[in-house]
Design goal:
six-stranded parallel β-sheet; Na+/H+ antiporter like fold; single chain; potassium transport; 11 strands; five-stranded mixed β-sheet; membrane; Rossmann fold; about 10% strand; potassium; Alpha-Beta Plaits; alpha/beta
Length: about 650
C-alpha cells in the first residue's frame, strides 16, 4: 500500500515536470501546468488522490506565500504610493466586488456565496502581471505604476478576507454587520498583539540565529517562525495565512529580508505547486463539459467587465486614454489569490462544487490569456486610440553613420557599457551602442547618447548597426547563452574586427577565444590585479615593474591567479592548491620528482617548501626528503588521489 502511494506521488511529480516544461515553452504560466496535473491525477481522470489528501500539506504553500508577501510589504513604499494604492486600488476592488456580488445574488446565490464570488473576481494576478511588466521594462511607465498600485492594494485586501472567511462559515447563518465588525476588531487586536511582541522578539531571535553562521538553522528558524505565527492566528479563530503575513511584515524591515526570502522560496514554490495541484483536483470535467458555454461566457464577461471598471475609474481620475486602456487590459484577469479564496470557501462549505468548478475554470482560462493581453496591452491601446501599433520585437531604425574605420560597437549598455562609452566620448572616438532595456535606451537617448534598442543575437540588427565598419566590438554582458549566440555571429559578420568579451571569471576562456574572441577580460581576475598593483605600489615597488608583471599575467592567461586553498564552501569545479606534508615514512621520500607520474595523477606541482624556504617550479631531479611540503594544483578529487599516492603509493 505504502509503495503504491509512493509510486503515485512520483508519477504525479513527473507529470508536473513535463507539464511545466511544455507550458513554459508555450509562454504560459506554471500555475496552469500545476492545475492540469491536479486534474489528471485527481478524481476526474486517474483518481490517485483526493483533494483532501493533498490540501492539508498544500495549505502550507499558502502560508509561505503570505509570509513572502509580508516580506515585500513596505510601509514607506505604501505611503509613497498612497494616492493610487488606496484611491484607485480600493475603488477597483470595491466596485468589482460589489458589482459581482449583485449579479451573483440576482443569479440565485446567497449573501455568503456572493461575497466569496465577488472577492475572487475582484483580484488580479500579481505574479503574472509584475513578471511581464518587468520583462518588458514597463514598471516605470505610467500604466505600469498604476497596475502595481492596484495589485498592491489587492494583496492587502486579502488580509481582511482571511479574517472574514472563518466567520462566513459560522453555522451557515446570515451575517450581521455586528459580527463582521467584531471579527475585524479581533483581527486588528491579534495583528497589533503579534506586531508588538514580534517587533521586539523576532529581530533578537534572528540575530542569534545569524551569529551561529549555520544555513540549516537559518532556514529552519524561518520555517518555524512562519508556521508558528500561522498556528497562533488559527488558534485565535483566524487564518494561518494571516499570521504568516504578519511575521513576514515584521521581518520585512530587517537586514535579513533578502536571506529570508531566498531561504523560503524553494519550500514556498514546491508547496504552492502542491496547492495548485489540489485546486486542479477540484475540477470536475463532467461539469466543465456540461457547462462549457457558461464558462466561456463568464471568462469573456469577467475580462471585459474588469477592464471596463478599471478604464472607467482611470478616466474619472483624468488619466490619458492610452494609459487607461493599457492598465485596464493588464488587470483584466483573475489572480492566484482567487484560488486561495475559492479553496478556503470549499473547505468551509461556502460554495457548491458546481459553482467552485465554474469559477476555477474561469480563473484558469483568464490566466491563460493574461500573458498575451499584458504583452499586447500597449499595442491594443494604440490601435484603439488610432495610432499604428509597433510590432513586438521590432527595433528602432538605426540611422546610417558617417564612414569611419574607428567605430567601436558596444553591445550592452549596463554599468560596464556606460563606463566604456563615457571614455569613448572623452577621447572623441565614434561609437554606437545596442541594448534591450527600453527604459535605459529611452533615458540615454534623451541625454543624446547614440544608444539604440535591439536584440544583438539577430543578424539583421547587427547589420543595421554597421558591424562591418566596426574596428572594435565590445560584448559587455556576461550571460553565457547570449555569448554563445552573439560571439560567433559577430565574428562571422566582422571577420577583421577585434572582439573584446567581458566575463565574470576565467572559466571557459579558451572556448571563447576559439569562438572568435580577440581578448577575454575576466572581471574577477582583473579586479584582483588592480588591487595587487595598488598594494605593490604602496609597498614601494617601481611602477614599471608592476606594469610588466600585470602584462605578463594577461599574456599568460592569468596563470598565477589560478588555484587557491579551499575553505568551508569549496567549489568542486575549480582547481585548488593543496599542501602535502611528507613525513619520514611517506612513499615518495628518497625519490626524485621525476619518479612521480604527474601526468597520470593529472595534478601540477607548483612549489616545494623545505626548512621554511619555498622553491617554485623545482627541477625534476630534486630529491625528496622527510619534512618536505609539496604544493600541488588540481581538481579536488585528483588532489585526493595524488595525496594518497604521495603518502602511501
Amino acid at each position: 500500500m505504502e509503495h503504491s502511494i509512493l509510486v503515485k506521488i512520483l508519477l504525479m511529480l513527473m507529470m508536473a515536470i513535463v507539464a511545466i516544461a511544455l507550458f513554459r515553452r508555450a509562454g504560459l504560466p506554471a500555475i496552469l501546468a500545476y492545475l492540469i496535473t491536479g486534474v489528471i491525477s485527481g478524481p476526474s481522470v486517474f483518481n490517485w488522490f483526493t483533494q483532501q489528501q493533498i490540501h492539508s500539506v498544500a495549505e502550507l504553500g499558502v502560508v509561505l506565500l503570505m509570509f513572502s508577501l509580508g516580506l515585500e510589504f513596505s510601509l514607506p513604499r505604501l505611503w509613497a504610493m498612497r494616492r493610487t494604492v488606496f484611491g484607485l486600488g480600493s475603488a477597483q476592488v470595491f466596485v468589482t466586488a460589489v458589482l459581482t456580488m449583485c449579479i451573483s445574488m440576482l443569479l440565485g446565490l446567497n449573501l455568503s456565496e456572493s461575497i466569496v464570488v465577488g472577492s475572487a473576481i475582484a483580484l488580479s494576478s500579481t505574479a503574472i502581471v509584475l513578471k511581464l511588466l518587468n520583462e518588458r521594462g514597463w514598471l516605470r511607465r505610467r500604466h505600469g505604476e498604476l497596475s502595481v498600485s492596484v495589485l498592491l492594494f489587492q494583496d492587502l485586501a486579502v488580509v481582511p478576507l482571511l479574517i472574514l472567511m472563518p466567520l462566513l462559515a459560522s453555522d451557515g447563518e446570515m451575517l450581521s454587520w455586528h459580527e463582521i465588525a467584531l471579527a475585524m476588531v479581533e483581527g486588528v487586536l491579534a495583528f497589533v498583539a503579534l506586531m508588538a511582541v514580534g517587533k521586539w522578539a523576532l529581530p533578537k531571535v534572528f540575530d542569534e540565529v545569524a551569529r551561529s553562521r549555520s544555513n540549516e538553522l537559518f532556514v529552519l528558524s524561518t520555517l518555524v517562525v512562519a508556521l508558528v505565527t500561522g498556528a497562533l492566528t488559527q488558534w485565535l479563530g483566524l487564518s494561518m495565512a494571516l499570521g504568516a503575513f504578519i511575521a513576514g511584515m515584521l521581518l520585512g524591515e530587517s537586514q535579513y529580508k533578502r536571506q529570508l526570502e531566498a531561504d523560503i522560496r524553494p519550500f514556498r514554490d514546491l508547496l504552492m505547486g502542491l496547492f495548485f495541484i489540489s485546486i486542479g483536483m477540484l475540477l470536475d470535467f463532467s461539469l466543465v463539459i456540461t457547462f462549457w458555454w457558461q464558462v466561456l461566457l463568464l471568462v469573456v464577461a469577467v475580462i471585459i467587465a474588469k477592464a471596463l471598471i478599471v478604464f472607467g475609474l482611470l478616466r474619472a481620475a483624468k488619466e490619458t486614454f492610452r494609459t487607461s486602456v493599457a492598465t485596464a487590459i493588464s488587470l483584466a484577469q483573475v489572480g492566484e489569490f482567487s484560488f486561495v479564496v475559492l479553496a478556503l470557501a470549499v473547505n468551509y462549505e461556502l460554495l457548491e462544487i458546481t459553482v467552485s468548478t465554474k469559477l476555477v475554470m474561469v480563473a484558469v482560462l483568464s490566466m491563460a490569456v493574461a500573458p498575451w493581453l499584458v504583452r499586447h496591452s500597449v499595442d491594443i491601446a494604440r490601435r484603439l486610440h488610432g495610432v499604428k501599433a509597433i510590432k513586438q520585437g521590432d527595433s528602432e531604425i538605426i540611422p546610417p553613420l558617417e564612414q569611419s574605420s574607428d567605430l567601436v560597437l558596444i553591445l550592452g549598455y549596463g554599468r560596464v557599457g556606460q563606463t566604456i562609452a563615457r571614455f569613448m566620448k572623452t577621447e572623441a572616438i565614434p561609437y554606437l551602442v545596442l541594448d534591450r532595456d527600453p527604459t535605459r535606451v529611452t533615458e540615454a537617448r534623451r541625454a543624446g547618447e547614440p544608444v539604440y534598442f535591439g536584440d544583438v543575437a539577430k543578424r539583421a540588427i547587427l547589420k543595421q548597426a554597421q558591424i562591418k565598419q566596426a574596428k572594435l566590438i565590445v560584448l559587455t554582458f556576461t550571460s553565457s547563452h547570449v555569448l554563445d549566440q552573439v560571439l560567433p555571429l559577430c565574428r562571422q559578420l566582422a571577420p577583421e574586427a577585434k572582439i573584446l568579451v567581458r566575463t565574470r571569471d576565467d572559466e571557459g576562456m579558451e572556448a571563447l577565444e576559439e569562438a572568435g574572441a580577440s581578448q577575454v577580460i575576466p572581471e574577477t581576475l582583473e579586479g584582483s590585479l588592480m588591487l595587487v598593483s595598488q598594494v605593490l605600489y604602496q609597498c614601494g615597488v617601481p611602477l614599471t615593474r608592476i606594469l610588466k608583471r600585470l602584462e605578463y599575467e594577461r599574456r599568460n592567461h592569468y596563470q598565477y591567479l589560478h588555484g587557491f586553498f579551499s575553505g568551508e564552501e569549496t567549489d568542486f569545479t575549480l582547481e585548488l592548491l593543496h599542501a602535502v606534508a611528507l613525513p619520514k615514512g611517506a612513499q615518495v621520500v628518497g625519490q626524485p620528482l621525476s619518479a612521480i607520474p604527474w601526468e597520470k595523477l593529472r595534478v601540477e606541482l607548483r612549489a616545494v617548501r623545505r626548512s621554511g624556504a619555498e622553491v617554485e617550479s623545482p627541477e625534476l631531479d630534486w630529491l625528496i626528503r622527510p619534512g618536505d611540503i609539496l604544493i600541488i594544483l588540481g581538481k579536488p578529487r585528483r588532489i585526493e588521489k595524488a595525496e594518497h599516492y604521495l603518502l602511501q603509493g
